[in-house]
Amino acid sequence: MNRVIITAAALCLLISSNNAVSALEAGKPSYPVAETGTAGQLSEDNKPSEKDTADADTPDDTAKTAEQKEQEKKPKKKKKKIIKQKKIVYVTYAEYFKDSLFVGDSICSGLKIYRGLLNTRIVAAKGNVAARSLSDYTFPYDSDSRGELDAYSIAALRKPKDIYIWMGMNDINVVSEESFVAHLESITANFRKVSPDSMIHIVSITPISRNHKWNYSCDGSNKIKRYNAAAERAFSERDDADWINVHDALADSDGYLLPAYSGGDGLHLSSSAYFAVLRSIYQHKAAAAAANELTNDSEK
What we know:
Elements: H1 8-25, H2 50-56, H3 59-73, H4 93-96, E1 100-104, H5 106-113, E2 123-125, E3 139-140, E4 148-149, H6 151-158, E5 162-166, H7 177-194, E6 199-203, H8 214-217, H9 220-235, E7 241-244, H10 247-250, H11 271-299
Parallel strand pairs: 1-2, 1-5, 5-6, 6-7
Antiparallel strand pairs: 3-4
Helix pairs in contact: 1-2, 7-9
């Protein structure tokens, strides 16, 4: 009969495995046998009994240990990151633009002529207003004793969050592109003085119909494009003002006013056109806000 000689070091290894398995089965954390000391030297407390030695050699415990090791090799499943979505709240355009001031000509005045668009008190617009002559006009200010005020006085009293300057149709056949931009810059500076916390937006000139007389007399549609391009260059990169393109939302592929958006004369707008304009402004602001949020996150 061959004798099996078990050294102290081997016993130490067997005890460690057996204790680890027993602890795991009991649901308790397992601890290794002390790593200090000389191999083959065990204290009386750590010496294994005959029962422990027999248990350590059983095939079942060996199989469990191997299974546990196999489980440890398997990659742990990562917990899914839960992303909380922002609650979407739907509001009317009247609600969305309630803290705004629209200043402009007869095209801008459509915002208060058509019902269901905006509160009329936030629109300061009259038929012949132009960028070169805004200071010559006054506009109704609520129904109180103040009567009519110029646009700058209204802004000074109201301190709107946003000021939309929407004019230019009465300028393109009178002043040059450079003069038009200079007048817009002057208007922006004047509003900045009386309402420094307001964000100022320059809204593009809208298109005219393909058959409008200006297309025959003064190349009207192409002129509108040039004036818009000049304003875009001047305001699109500024911190205190920006430029909003509503022209393209109303135009066909050739730059002419879509028939559905014509108010009847090929120049003024239908009620559906104003919804398209307000939607374009909203989308512009939403895109700008998202871009600012990304910039702020990258700087953190």
